[in-house]
Amino acid sequence: MKRTEKKLWKKIVIGLIAGMISGLFTAGGGLILVPAFLYALKLEPKQARATSLFCILPMVIITSIFYGKNHLIDWKIGILCAIGGIIGGIVGAKFLNKVPEKYLKIAFTIFLIYAGINMLL
Questions:
Q1: pLDDT tens track for 68-91
Q2: Does one domain contain both 93 and 83?
Q3: Structural domain tally of the chain?
Q4: What pLDDT, in 10s, does the model give residues 89-111?
Q5: Torsions phi, psi of 98, nearest 5?
Q6: What gap in Å lies between CA 50 and CA 48, rounded to an integer?
Q7: Residues ≥6 apart with Cβ < 8 Å to 101
Q8: Which of these, 72, 56, 50, lies nearest to 19 by C-alpha position?
Q9: Is the N or C terminus of the chain more exposed, i.e. has fewer CB atoms within 10 Å?
């Protein structure tokens, strides 16, 4: 297998794993894609996060279709949170280039620890 084919398959496998985790646990973007982009594909941290967000959109749309068909979406909560998410996404994207990478890593690590502890409890 050629080197370019290996790189292509590596990217497809990363997407496959992220999609399955997203479909099962609704957590595939930041938890799977960002570390995979950083360590397996050697992207710069800000580029890894931005690429992850781009990849999340189709995963979320497809997963939402299946969840919607199974009547698992609370539309009122979803729409209100989506409005907040849009505003938060704009603010976060504007801050991305202004916050030093060191602080972004610390904040992301704290978030992951917090999320992990909450999942265990």
A1: 999 999 999 999 999 999 999 899
A2: yes
A3: 2
A4: 899 888 888 889 899 889 888 98
A5: -100, -20
A6: 6
A7: 45, 46
A8: 56
A9: C
In angstroms, rounded to a whole number, what is the distance separating the alpha carbons of residues 71 and 87?
A: 27
Residue 47's domain spans which residues? 1-72
Q: What is the dihedral of CA 100, 93, 76, 56, to 10 degrees?
A: -90
Listing DSSP states for 9-35 in one string gives: HHHHHHHHHHHHHHHHHS--IIIIIHH
Tokens read off for 1: 């297998």
Say what the pTM is.
Answer: 0.72
Are 29 and 22 a contacting pair, CB within 8 Å?
A: yes
Burial 85-114 (b: 16+ CB within 10 A, else e): eeeeeeeeeeeeeeeeeeeeeeeeeeeeee
Classify residue 7 by its DSSP letter.
Answer: H
